[in-house]
Amino acid sequence: MSLRLSTVILPYRRWNEGGRAAWVRAEQLGFHSAYTYDHLSWRSFRDGPWFGAVPTLTAAAAATDRLRLGTLVTSPNFRHPVTLAKELISLDDISGGRVTLGIGAGGTGFDATALGQEPWTPRERADRLAEFVPLLDRLLTEDSVSHEGRFYSAHEARNIPGCVQRPRLPFAVAATGPRGLKLAARYGQAWVTTGDPRLYESGTPEQSVEALRGQLEKLSEACAAAGRDMAELDKVLLTGFTPDRGRPLASLDAFVDFAGRHQELGFTEIVIHWPIPDSDFAADEKAFERIAMEAPAQLA
Predict the structure, then answer these.
(1) Tally of CA atoms within 13 A in the half-sphere of 173 that contains its CB
(2) Of 215, 278, 270, 218, which is closest to residue 244 (Cα–Cα)?
(3) Residues 270-292: pLDDT tens digits?
(4) How far, rounded to the nearest angstrom, does the alpha carbon of residue 295 sit from its chain's CA centroid?
(5) Mean pLDDT across 64-90
């Protein structure tokens, strides 16, 4: 299978001051998908401009024609399945069926406390995701949904006419633990990983590859337990968080070498960050564009 190349565009620029131009250029460069982060604020960008994911994707849908759009990733930290489903159905309609929902358990960053709550423990985040995903699946596939759960409720929530994509827009489930992988196997059309975060500071690229191999093996086991063929799921690597860091974007050759090693593991989509000067995602724009235009053919 040919490797898909996608990008993630952080929503830190005003739409008319470079925001729109990046999404339009992503389509021109031939990226399979362009995603954005669904956060209220994020890491070093906390004290600077940061815009909402769904409005940004809606504007991107209007500015493009072919590019797939999505979140990497949405989490229960500040989302409710009922309101999120309505927004997603609307976005899928506006885009003509080009939306993928990346979804995960979230973390302990700024989103975890922005609504005034204490950060949830890993177990609590997993508990919420385990209820969030099945309920969202129902909300996107049924005309009327009622649900009384431990964390979320819905009372005759109407979602007519549903998604343009049938039976619903695809879920890309970010997970490495057993409960999240079970959700990916049951509800996902794709699985997302950033690698093993324990290796980021002091690990090696070789150790990262082995860790990813182990994650893929666990995904295979989860799919087998669910009675599902693992080949049905796309396997997505969001780059920038492995020991390789930004080195794969240094040149076309460096990227093809990096992507080829991960393609051999079984990954079907590699996501690279749109360059952001003076940040962890700084990269030479000419090299980035050359990678976008030439790497997919070399990895076919």
Answers:
(1) 26
(2) 270
(3) 999 999 999 999 999 999 999 99
(4) 21
(5) 98
Q: Which of 246, 235, 243 is nearest to 288 (CA)?
A: 246
Residue where the block lists tokens 């129902």: 138
Separation of alpha carbons 192 and 281, rounded Å: 19
Q: Which two tokens stand for residue 135?
A: 């309920």
234: Cβ contacts below 8 Å, ≥ 6 apart: 4, 172, 189, 190, 191, 268, 269
Quick check: 65 pLDDT over 70?
Answer: yes
Give the integer Cα–Cα distance in Å for 281 and 42: 13
Burial class (CB in 10 A: 0-12, 13-18, 19+), 124: middle
pLDDT at position 1 is 66
Nearest by Cα to 154 from 209, 83, 89: 83
Is the backbone of residue 44 left (phi > 0), alpha (psi -120 to 50) or beta? alpha
Query: Whole-angstrom Cα distance, residue 291 to residue 218?
Result: 31
Cβ–Cβ < 8 Å for 233, 188:
yes
Cα–Cα distance for residue pair 112/117, rounded to 1 Å: 7
pTM of this structure: 0.97
For tokens 């362009």, the residue is 34
- The total of other beta-carbon atoms located within 10 Å of residue 239's CB is 22
CB 262 within 8 A of CB 215: no
CA-CA-CA-CA torsion for 44, 46, 48, 51, nearest 10 degrees? 120
Distance in angstroms (rounded) separating the CA atoms of residues 57 and 70: 7
Per-residue model confidence as pLDDT tens digits over 151-187: 999 999 999 999 999 999 999 999 999 999 999 999 9
